[in-house]
């Protein structure tokens, strides 16, 4: 589809996002340095900077070094200029965070989910938590741009609904975006958790996360987010990046998606613990303090990660076996997408980064098609284990302040 035409006033809004994005990624930076970086004229830069200063989105933050001439004033993003709420929905918990323009978590709350959860009850509980976080942080509600919701897939992106999520039995097709917007009284954006995480990395990382990368998200399940040339891929239905459903064992284990041999059936936390028990027996499980019941998955996984960090041979063997399969799937993704960076993150990753990186590096840089042309870097998330909630908030921040065709084609409101 060819983008529709636009009136010149819309270009002004687009230019503001271009300049703000440049200051966010490269600041502190002077007006003069913004000219070649953005391709805008000095006069346009001057006008745009003045508007951003008036809106409180940027600030003058000192002066550049000078060897005799006039010192240039430096510009930086003003973290308290705007805020967004991030809600990360996982089968075991909900993380709610108030995030400022720089991507810093100002206040957060973690809500444990026990047993079957009613969507309406959950939405109301989260809405009350959001209002409390904003009040406790003494933030002007008018500076809260909206809320982002990061959910497991699959989703109906066009209608803001989550559709038969495997780990939320009985949910069917739930219009979460509409429900959260009505309960919170603010605009809501919704996306898959792994895609939101990739957007969060792109927003927070600035120049370090420019270009193209694959984000591998490991929580209760496994997902992927893809940035190609600074554009996050969503796909026609909003379900691009289902990394956990790359087939790694033909005719293998049955997956919740209805297929067989999917990566997630071998490398999710539950699958890794089950493999540990099968390969090393109940004595090892008891020695590591693992009870291996569905209700103890969260505590078992924490214990397991501690064992890996201690260098326990059985735990290390189990995670390394899973990491090899993740490397196998990563090689397929890299061959398809030709990205130069893989980022690893998510709630379940902490303490396992080095082993995951080693095995993914060996699989990708040892056998990918383009390995003779470039080396793929394997890096941990810049955000850490709150990437889901920060990524959710970044749906709003990125949507409002990252340059894109949306600013040119949408009608003013």
From TrEMBL:
Give all residue intervals belonging to the HTH marR-type domain: 15-61
Q: Which Pfam families did the record assign?
A: MarR_2 (PF12802), ROK (PF00480)
Give the protein family: Belongs to the ROK (NagC/XylR) family.
User: Would you tell me the protein name for this molecule?
Assistant: ROK family transcriptional regulator
- Organism source for this protein? Streptomyces chiangmaiensis
Query: Which classification does the entry list for the species?
Result: Bacteria, Bacillati, Actinomycetota, Actinomycetes, Kitasatosporales
């Amino acid at each position: 589809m060819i983008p529709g035409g636009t009136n010149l006033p819309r270009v002004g809004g687009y230019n503001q996002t271009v300049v703000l994005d440049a200051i966010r990624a490269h600041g502190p930076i002077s007006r003069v340095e913004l000219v070649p970086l953005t391709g805008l004229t000095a006069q346009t830069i001057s006008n745009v900077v003045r508007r951003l200063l008036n809106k409180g989105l940027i600030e003058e933050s000192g002066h550049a070094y000078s060897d005799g001439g006039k010192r240039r004033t430096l510009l930086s993003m003003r973290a308290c200029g705007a805020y967004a709420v991030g809600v990360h929905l996982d089968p075991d918990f909900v993380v709610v965070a108030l995030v400022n323009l720089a991507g810093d978590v100002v206040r957060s709350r973690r809500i444990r989910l026990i047993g079957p959860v009613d969507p309406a009850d959950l939405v109301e509980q989260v809405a009350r938590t959001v209002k409390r976080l904003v009040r406790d942080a003494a933030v002007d509600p008018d500076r809260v741009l909206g809320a982002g919701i990061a959910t497991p897939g699959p989703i109906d992106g066009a209608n803001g609904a989550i559709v038969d999520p495997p780990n939320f039995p009985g949910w069917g097709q739930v219009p979460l975006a509409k429900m959260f917007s009505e309960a919170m009284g603010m605009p809501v954006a919704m996306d898959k958790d792994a895609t939101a995480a990739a957007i969060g990395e792109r927003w927070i990382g600035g120049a370090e996360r420019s270009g193209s990368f694959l984000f591998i998200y490991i929580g209760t399940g496994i997902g992927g987010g893809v940035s190609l040339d600074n554009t996050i891929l969503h796909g026609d239905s909003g379900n691009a990046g289902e990394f956990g459903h790359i087939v790694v064992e033909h005719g293998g284990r049955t997956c919740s998606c209805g297929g067989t041999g999917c990566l997630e059936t071998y490398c999710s936390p539950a699958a890794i613990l089950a493999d540990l028990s099968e390969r090393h027996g109940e004595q090892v499980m008891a020695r590591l303090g693992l009870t291996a019941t569905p209700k103890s998955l969260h505590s078992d996984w924490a214990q397991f990660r501690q064992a890996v960090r201690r260098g326990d041979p059985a735990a290390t063997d189990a995670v390394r076996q899973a990491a090899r399969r993740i490397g196998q799937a990563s090689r397929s993704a890299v061959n398809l997408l030709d990205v130069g960076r893989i980022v690893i993150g998510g709630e379940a990753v902490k303490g396992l980064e080095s082993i995951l990186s080693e095995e993914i590096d060996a699989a990708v840089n040892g056998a990918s098609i383009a390995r003779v042309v470039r080396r793929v870097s394997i890096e941990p998330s810049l955000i850490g284990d709150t990437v889901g909630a920060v990524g959710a908030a970044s749906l709003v921040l990125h949507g409002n302040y990252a340059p894109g065709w949306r600013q040119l084609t949408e009608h003013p409101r």
